Amino acid sequence: MFFAISTIAIAGGIGTVITPNVVYAALFLLLSLLAVAGIYILIFSPFLALVQILIYGGAVIVVVLFALMLTRQSGEAGNLDSRQKPIAFVAGSGMLAVLIATVLKNSWPDPVDRQVVGLTELGSELFTRWAVPFELASLLLLVALIGAIVLARPSDKRPGDNS
Amino acid sequence: MIGLEHILVVSSILFSLGVFGVLARRNAIMILLALELMLNAVNINLIAFAVYLDPDLIVGIIFAIFVTTVAAAEVGLAMAFILRLYRSRSSVNVDEVNLMRW
Asked: Residue A110, Cα to own-chain centre: how many angstroms?
């Protein structure tokens, strides 16, 4: 089960980074994120899987698709890959080699059987011990919201004006 | 039950794909998608370490929730930024944005 889901997640990830079509890339990313939600369920965090599907599947991908539709490009400008792709490949494989070597070199604790954390427990913990970070997160969302509105609002200048 | 190293290998692969994507793409939205991939790999790691090493599991979940929150805020802000860029340059390719390059 885990291997099937991981294969889907990795296939989605590969699709995201190599496909030449922007919309396919967003949908591949959605596939990968949903498979990651499956991994969360397998490692005893169903609440996080729910959050993942809601936020990524429901919000992030929709926002990305909207942005893709609003910023269509064609011809040479529509080419998604930069000239440094070979260097990027070397950097990515190097990163992968280092990470995998580190994982395989160390010995990890044995698998344990866990209880799923209840929503009640999670909620009370979030509002007592983690209340300040929680409020900071809501403040961050508010600031991001206002910032997005201010940035995306059309200016009074005529379109095509570069400043 | 899955071994911790399997989860870590999967998240390593996802993270490296994200690194490759960020460096290889020049469309700003594609860079953002690859960034999401990296954030997710980090999230998997947080949960996996919480499940295997932390007796009460809750800290990892809460950290992952905060990472997800920040990712959502980041996407919203970045999309506004990209729209702004597209409006002023008719392009979202990061190699054509040289206003702050000296």
From this structure: 29
